[in-house]
C-alpha cells in the first residue's frame, strides 16, 4: 500500500525513502516515461480495436444487382413472391441470407406484343415500413397486410392504413436478358426513396 | 458506517483448543484456515450487521431478484457449454438441447422462466423502493445503480430472446433495427453496429451472443456487487413512518442510534424472511419450468417464410403494444426520446428529492405514479399479448359466414356475402365473434351506416380502413353494401329512412 507523506513530494510509491532533490527527479522522469509509454501503447492497441468494433458502421456495403429470374415468372397484373440470396454473406449466415420480396407486374403496362421493361415492375421489400415485420399480399383485396401492428398497403405499395409512416420500400429494378434484376443487399430503412 | 472493515491486526489468531478425534481435526483445520485467511472475521460482521427491526416482508424482492440472477448465471454457463452461436445451426442446436441432451430441456426451461421471474422480482423490488422512498438520503446512489441494473436486466432479457434464433427472434431483431434506423443522423450506423452488417445475419447472432454471455453479465455482476456494497454501507432502510421525515443533516446519527438500540442481526433474524420467500419462489419456478417446459424455439428462422406472427417475449409485450396504440406521428419521439427521458427521470429522482416524508400516505402523487405505471404496464402487456390491432390473417378463409346471416337473403345479397369473405374484410371485421377486431364488428353495421355511407366507406375507406374502390367493381361494392344492410337485429331499424332504398333496378342486378 502506498503511504505517501509530505516528505515525499514526488507522490510516488514512497519506497525510495529519498526526497525530491536526490532520487525524486529520476523517479519522476521514469514516471513520465512510463505514462508516455503506456499512453502510446494504449493508443496503438486501441486504434485497431476501435476500428474493428466500429467495422459494421464504417464499412460500405454497396448494393448489388440480384437476379430474380425470368420475367415470365411474373405475369402482368399479378403480384408474386420471389426470394433471393443476399449478395453480402458470411460463412455462418445459414438461411438468414435468404431474402423475400414482392414483385408486382403492373397490369396493362405493356402490351402482349412487346417484352416487359423495368418500368412495368415494382419490387417491394418484404419488410413493413413501420418496424420491419414481413407483409403478406392478399390478391383478392389487392392489399399488403402486416401481422405485427396492422400496417396495410395498396398494391402499388402506398400506405393504406395503420402505423407505417410511409409506403413499402421499393428496390431499384432493371430488366436485362429477359431476367428481372433488383439492386439489393441491405435491410431497407426509412432512408430508402419512396 | 459499514462495519465491514475488519482489521486483520485487530483480531488475534485464535488458538485451537486441544481436542481429539475428527471434531478436533476439523476444528484445527478450520482454525488454521481462519488464521491464514480471516474469512470468518471478515464475513461475520457483514452477515450479522444490525438491521432495523421494522424490516418486513416488503424487503424480500431484492433478495429474490439476486437469487434468480444467480440461477441465470449457473444455468447460463451450462447452456453456453451446449449452445453454438451460429446462425446456420443455432436453431437446430436448441432442438438438440431440448431432445437429446440429458435434462437439457429443463436447463432451458429454468433459464427461460427464471429470466421472466427475475424481471418480475426486479420490478416488485423497484416498486417497493419507490413506494417507500428508500432512495432518499443517504441511499441515492443505491437507487441510481439499481436503475442501471434494471436496464441491464432488460438488455439481458432481450439479447437472450435473440439467442433463441427462431422466427420471433429474427423479426424481433428486425424491429430493434427499425427503431435504431429512426435515430436522426447516425441511425444507419447504429443499425449496422446492432446487426454487425447490412442485414440480419450470422454476425448479428454472434454479437448478441457476446453481449448476452460476456458484456452484460459482467457489467451486471459488477453493479450487483456495488449495489450490495452500498446497501451495507448505508444499512437497510426502516419502514417509513408518518411524521418521521428524512433530514440529511441528522438522518445518519438517528439511524445508527435506532439500529444500535432496537436493531436485530441481519443473519439470521432478518434473513429468515428472505430465506422463506426465496425458497418458495425457487420451488414455484422449478414447478413452472417443469409444467411449462422450455420457451421455444418457435418457427425456423427462414426470412423468406413470411407466414409468421412475430411477437416479443413477456418483458417486451408492453412496448409491442405501445408502438401499436400511439398515434403514428408520435412514434419516433416515443421510441427514441421517451426512454431517455424516463431513464433520466429515474436517475435524477433521488437527487431532486432526497429528504422529507417517506410514508406513502404522505406522498400521494408518487403512489398514484406507481399505480398508473403498474396499470399501464399491465394493460399494454395484455394488449401486446392479444394484439387486437393485428389483422387475423386467415379469418377470410378460415371463419365461415355465420349461417343466420345468409338465411333468407336475396341472391344479390348472398353474392355480397361472398365478396365480403373473399375481399378479406373478415381479417379486420368480425362476424358472429370471429375475425379481426381492428375494425368494428359488422353484425349490426346497418344500424350505424346507411346504404350510401356503406358504399362510400368501402370505396374510399376512412380513418384506418383502406379504400376498396380499385379492388372491387361497382357491382361488388353494391352487393357488399346490400348484404351489410341486412346486418341488424330483427326489431331494430336500419339507419336508412324507410323507403329510402329503391329496389335494385334489373340492369344493375344483372351487371357482372
Largest sheet of chain A: 4 strands, antiparallel
> Quick one: how many beta strands of chain B?
2
Order of neighbouring strands in the sheet with most strands of chain B:
1-2
Domain unit count of chain B: 3
CATH 2nd-level architecture of the largest domain in chain B: Up-down Bundle
Classified by CATH, the class of the largest domain in chain B is: Mainly Alpha
Mean pLDDT of chain B: 89
Question: What level of helicity do the residues of chain A show?
Answer: 10-25%
Straight-line N-to-C gap of chain A: 66 Å
Quote the CATH topology of the largest domain in chain B. Cytochrome Bc1 Complex, Chain C
In quaternary terms, these chains amount to: heterodimer
Beta-strand level of the residues of chain A, as a percent range?
25-35%
Chains forming the largest contact: A-B, 57 and 69 residues
Shape of chain B: elongated
Folded structure, characterized:
The complex is a heterodimer of chains A (194) and B (512). Chain A has 194 residues and is α+β, with helices and mostly antiparallel strands. Chain A folds into two domains: 1-59, no CATH class; 64-184, Rieske Iron-sulfur Protein. Helices cover 20% and strands 26% of the residues of chain A. Chain A has one helix and eleven strands; from the N terminus they run αβββββββββββ. Chain A has a four-stranded antiparallel sheet, with no helix packed on it. In chain A, strands 5-6-7-8 form a four-stranded antiparallel sheet, with no helix packed on it. Chain A has a three-stranded antiparallel sheet with strand order 1-11-10, with no helix packed on it. Chain A is elongated. Chain B is an all-alpha fold. Chain B has helices spanning 21-37, 39-47, 60-80, 90-99, 104-131, 140-163, 167-181, 187-195, 202-234, 251-262, 266-292, 317-325, 331-352, 364-386, 395-398, 411-422, 451-460, 474-484, 506-509; strands at residues 50-51, 264-265. Chain B is built from 19 helices and two strands.
